[in-house]
Amino acid sequence: MSFVVGLTGGIGSGKSTVAELFAARGAVLVDTDAIAHELSGPQGAAMAAIRAAFGDTVLRPDGGLDRAAMRRLAFADPLARTKLEEILHPLIRLRSDACCTAAEHAPYVLLVVPLLVETASYRQRADRVLVIDCDEALQIARVTARSGLSAAAVQAIMATQATRAQRREVADDVLLNEGGLDALLPEIDGLHRRYLALASAKLHAGR
Predict the structure, then answer these.
(1) What is the rounded CA–CA span in Å between residue 10 and residue 17?
(2) Which end of the chain has fewer CB atoms surrounding its CB within 10 Å, N or C?
(3) Beta bridge partners of residue 201, listed in sequence order
(4) Which positions bind ATP (predicted)?
């Protein structure tokens, strides 16, 4: 089994940027958000169940999930969010497990899970947890700039996620992402070397 680093962080913390930088150094990326998009895209494996549960009002013309419509429904009705998670989460876990297993010869796997802190099964699968952290005001500024969502809408999303303190509590490593690439790259290089060493140690221990 590959050495798996579970990467998480709040919305706007910079998870995708950090994950891509690790991937550029040789880590295999397994992104549960990307898997969710695939499952809920046109012809996605989750779409029949989503349509049966919520009807055509949450579908785009191409048959994929209309995320804005689903977001509005989920915030208006917490049971709708729970129902969507019950459809998607088991499929995401199966697919992410398969991807991690297929990467057994990789230096290590970076398993990106936005809700890793909230989902015990993902924490149990990770050999180490890396939290991408930043100030909450910066999270809001980043998300409003890239998405067009209002600050209030971003704060509502953040309220459904673990707090900074809760994420830090489960972290083995914390990467503060409040500066530019010049500040970020040395930290990533250091963590990459650490994960290579830990992956090698796990491999030799399993022989």
Answers:
(1) 13
(2) C
(3) none
(4) 12-17
- DSSP string computed for the chain: ---EEEEEE-TTS-HHHHHHHHHHTTPEEEEHHHHHHHHTSTT-TTHHHHHHHH-GGGB-TTSSB-HHHHHHHHHH-HHHHHHHHHHHHHHHHHHHHHHHHHTTTSS-EEEE-TTTTT-HHHHHH-SEEEEEE--HHHHHHHHHHHH---HHHHHHHHHTSPPHHHHHHH-SEEEE--S-HHHHHHHHHHHHHHHHHHHHHHHHHT-
pTM comes to 0.90
Rounded-to-integer distance, Cα 74 and Cα 128, Å: 31
Residue 14 in marked binding region: yes
- 144 annotated binding-site participant: no
* 29-59 pLDDT tens trace: 999 999 999 999 999 999 999 999 999 999 9
Tell whether residue 17 is among the known ligand binding residues.
yes
Residue 207 confidence (pLDDT) above 70: no
206 annotated to a ligand binding site: no
Q: Is 15 one of the annotated binding-site residues?
A: yes
55 is in an annotated binding site: no
Question: How far lies 93's CA from each of 58, 149, 155, 189, in Å?
Answer: 23, 29, 27, 29
The tokens 């913390």 sit on which residue? 13
